[in-house]
Each structure stands twice: as C-alpha cells, then as structure tokens.
C-alpha cells in the first residue's frame, strides 16, 4: 500500500494544491506563489460516507422569522455600512491598505461599544503598550475595553469560549497560527484554518467577530478567497494617503445592502464621521473652470455628488498618455472612442488626464456622461455651468442610456443648491394600442432638468471642436 505524502504544495494566492512544486500556478497564473506545506491528516475511511448520518428535517420556505437584533456602535457611518448595527454571531472581515485606519476605526468602535457591553480586542501585530498609546492619543484610554496581545488561536479560542464577550476583534488574521499545522502564519492553510475556528466559535457563542485582513498589491484581501465566503460581511477601507477622506465600502453583507459606503475624515483625534459627503467632496471646487463637471452618483443607497476633473492637452509623444485616478481606464477609452467615432471629435492625439476629486473611487457606468462633459469642456476651454449636475450612461452607438434611481440623484443635487441637471431621456412608456407615449422629465422644485438622447446633444452645447479627418 502506498504511503500518503507527507507534504503538499499550495499556492499562497488562490489556494490551489499541487503534487509538486512549480514556478507558475495554473489556477491563478501567479508566479513564485507555490509553497510546500504539511499535508493534513487523512480522515479514517467511512468518516465522510453516508453511513451513520442523521436525516435532515426539511421545512417550508414560508415561515415566521424575526429580524436579527442589532448592536449599534454609535458610529453612524459604521452602522450604516453594516446594515444598521452588528448582528450577534456574525463575522465581519475588514481589509485595507497598511496605515489606512483599520485598527483605529475598530478601536474607536470597541471603545464606544464597551460602555454598554463587554468587548475584547486581541492584537497579533502590536504589543499591549502600543495599543494603549494609540488609545491615549485618541482619547479612548478610559473605555473599559479588554485588551490582549496573542497569536495562538488555541489560546484565543480557550479564552473566548470560557468567558465569551459580546464583541471581539482579531487584529489581524494573517498573524494568527494554529499549532496543528506546520505552515507559517499568513499562509493559505493557516489563514483558512484560523478563520474557520474563530468564526465557528463566534457563531456557537453568539458574539460579533471582527477580523482584520491585509491586502495584496492589487488591493484585494490577502489569503484564500474562501475566507471572504466564510464571513457574513466584507468591508474594504479605501482612501488615498494624500487625502484625509476614508471610504468604508461593504462588498458583501448577509444582513444588509451591498455597495453601501461610510465616509470618514482622518483627524488628529482619529476618524470622524462625515454626515454630508457631497458637500465635503465639493467644498474645494472652483466654479467656471474648464474640464470640471459635477457627477450625481449613487453609492449603495446614498446619493453622492463628486467633481470629475479632466485635462485634454496636446501630446508631444507618438503614443498619447492616458492617466486615470478614481475611475476605470477602460471606460475612459470607450468614451473617447465614442466621441471620436460617433461625434467626429479629434481627441485621440491628445494626452488625457482624468481625476475624481476627493479620493473617491467611482465604479458605476452612470458617470460616463459627466466624464464626456468634462472632456469636451477641457478640449474647448469652455466651462460647464457651476450649478449643473450631470449623470448618464453612454452606449457604443452614442446614445445616452437611463440609469437607476434618477429621482434620488436629482433630489440630492437640488438639496445642495444646483439649479440645472443633464440627465438621460426617459424611455417611452407603452400606451394603449401599442403606441409609445413619452414621459415628462421628473419635476424637482428649484431644479431645471434637461434630457439628452444622444451624445451629439451634449457636444452641441459647446463651441465647435476640431473635427476628425475623413
């Protein structure tokens, strides 16, 4: 009988297992990520078979299920992203770049919660004295938070199981290790096994668990992707080091809406909530400047107005430059191609720079029309009206397509004092007899709404541009 292998080779990027070492992982295509690890102990025969199993009891889909209770952190932006507060027995994974403020936010949250419930903060990266110094700097040293420094999951599980708190923070999961595995902390096997043990304990004892996760150079949470499937909520902390704004974005939430965001401002006293992010993002905007346009966006259920800045300049190189900050470079290339092919504008030979002011990352296609307006404004040196908000998706044929929740975007623009809005034309509403009946634009008090059906309608609002040859 062949002897089982004593080790196996595991990719540290995607978790694929190989029988021998290779330079490139066939699963994810990464190089030099395959590491030798001790093989897990095989289960005895029949342990995973159908013998001895318990018969499942099926129930109907319809039934009485109460809404999960919530534990509010008294940090409104964090509660908003979590869906209204923390759910007992849930596991939340918080990821972000080094120094972005993950530990600061969780220390502030546990300090606020500890005044009404029992909270434990376990640090694997910093000593107790280091955490105390941060708490003193933030003015939180009087909060009754139970603090410990440990990396052994066996010790942590034994402690939390004997006397479980209501909220526990593990900072970070990459520093934890399980002594039953021979691999080093931070490897795929360790992260997966440690997460499984801690999440299982949290659900069994009914306390909310925060796991802090490192991110890779691509910005995704390091370790196996299966860890994001194991937890109930995945939060990404975003922001640029040069900006004081921080965005907490929910990309997964089993107890609330996804793509919800919370906005914070980094101060010398920690992270402060931003209750009106639109006003903050537009605070430094200068009116009557070419290449600037206000985009009425939507992040989760929250409308956000942000400034789109574009600069079109003659290129001194054979290949013009395309630099994008805060938006998708692929969509910028598409908008430029539509402007040239459908509207006859000669922009392809220029350098193009695009920036979303304030450090916010915009992902929705509704920003296409605002980007096009900023590009044309910069190329013609003709500013967009300072009190105009723009949103709409652009198709490859040049049509301006409708986007979701236009009324919410327009109400936010009117609330901030905007007088005009450029929006997509509403699709016709079928009438009796099979004929289409046009719908009027939404009526918002104090806001003049102008509808566009094609990108050429936007180009006609500016002075003539250089036309493409042919």
TrEMBL record:
Gene Ontology molecular function: ATP binding; ATP-dependent DNA damage sensor activity; damaged DNA binding; hydrolase activity; zinc ion binding
Span of the annotated motif RadA KNRFG motif: 252-256
SUPFAM superfamilies from the UniProt entry: P-loop containing nucleoside triphosphate hydrolases, Ribosomal protein S5 domain 2-like
InterPro entries reported in the protein's UniProt record: AAA+_ATPase, DNA_repair_RadA, P-loop_NTPase, RecA_ATP-bd, Ribosomal_Su5_D2-typ_SF, Ribsml_uS5_D2-typ_fold_subgr, Rubredoxin_2
Name this polypeptide is given: DNA repair protein RadA
Keyword vocabulary terms for this entry: ATP-binding, DNA damage, DNA repair, DNA-binding, Hydrolase, Metal-binding, Nucleotide-binding, Stress response, Zinc, Zinc-finger
Origin superkingdom: Bacteria
Region entry Lon-protease-like, spans: 351-470
Organism annotation: Caenispirillum bisanense
Binding site for ATP: 96-103
Protein task: DNA-dependent ATPase involved in processing of recombination intermediates, plays a role in repairing DNA breaks. Stimulates the branch migration of RecA-mediated strand transfer reactions, allowing the 3' invading strand to extend heteroduplex DNA faster. Binds ssDNA in the presence of ADP but not other nucleotides, has ATPase activity that is stimulated by ssDNA and various branched DNA structures, but inhibited by SSB. Does not have RecA's homology-searching function.
GO process terms (BP): recombinational repair
Region feature Disordered, mapped onto this chain: 424-446
Domain RecA family profile, residue spans: 67-215
HAMAP family: RadA_bact (MF_01498)
């Amino acid at each position: 009988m062949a002897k089982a292998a004593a080790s196996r080779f595991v990719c540290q990027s995607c978790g694929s297992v190989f029988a021998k070492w290779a330079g490139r992982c066939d699963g994810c295509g990464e190089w030099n990520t395959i590491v030798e690890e001790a093989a897990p102990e095989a289960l005895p025969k029949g342990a995973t078979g159908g013998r001895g199993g318990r018969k499942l009891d099926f129930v109907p889909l319809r039934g009485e299920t109460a809404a999960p209770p919530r534990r509010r952190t008294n940090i409104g932006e964090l509660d908003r992203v979590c869906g209204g507060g923390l759910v007992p027995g849930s596991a939340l994974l918080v990821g972000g770049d080094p120094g972005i403020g993950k530990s600061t936010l969780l220390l502030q949250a546990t300090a606020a919660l500890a005044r009404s419930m029992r909270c434990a903060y376990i640090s694997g990266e910093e000593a107790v004295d280091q955490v105390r110094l941060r708490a003193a700097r933030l003015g939180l040293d009087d909060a009754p938070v139970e603090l410990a420094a440990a990396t052994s999951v066996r010790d942590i599980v034994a402690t939390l199981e004997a006397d479980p708190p209501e909220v526990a923070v593990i900072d970070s999961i990459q520093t934890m290790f399980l002594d039953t595995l021979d691999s080093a902390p931070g490897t795929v096997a360790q992260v997966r096994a440690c997460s499984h043990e801690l999440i299982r304990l949290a659900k069994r004892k009914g306390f909310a668990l925060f796991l802090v996760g490192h991110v890779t150079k691509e910005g995704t949470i390091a370790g196996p992707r299966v860890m994001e499937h194991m937890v109930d909520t995945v939060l990404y902390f975003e922001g640029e080091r040069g900006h004081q704004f921080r965005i907490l974005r929910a990309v997964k939430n089993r107890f609330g809406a996804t793509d919800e965001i919370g906005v914070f401002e980094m101060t010398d006293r920690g992270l402060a909530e931003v209750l009106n992010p639109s006003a903050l993002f537009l605070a430094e905007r200068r009116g009557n400047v070419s290449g600037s346009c206000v985009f009425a966006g939507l992040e989760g259920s929250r409308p956000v107005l942000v400034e789109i800045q574009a600069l079109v300049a003659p290129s001194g190189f054979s290949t013009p430059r395309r630099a994008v900050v805060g938006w998708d470079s692929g969509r910028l290339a598409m908008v430029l191609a539509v402007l040239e092919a459908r509207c006859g504008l000669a922009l392809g030979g220029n350098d193009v720079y695009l920036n979303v002011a304030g450090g916010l990352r915009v992902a929705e296609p509704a920003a296409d029309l605002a980007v096009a307006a900023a590009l044309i404004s910069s190329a013609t040196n003709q500013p967009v009206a300072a009190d105009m908000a723009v949103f709409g998706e652009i198709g490859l044929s040049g049509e301006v397509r409708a986007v979701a929740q236009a009324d919410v975007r327009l109400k936010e623009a009117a609330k901030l004092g905007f007088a005009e809005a450029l929006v997509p034309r509403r699709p016709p509403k079928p009438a009796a007899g099979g004929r289409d009946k046009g719908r009027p634009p939404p009526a918002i008090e104090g806001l003049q709404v102008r509808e566009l059906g094609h990108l050429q309608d936007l180009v006609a609002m500016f002075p003539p541009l250089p036309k493409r040859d042919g």
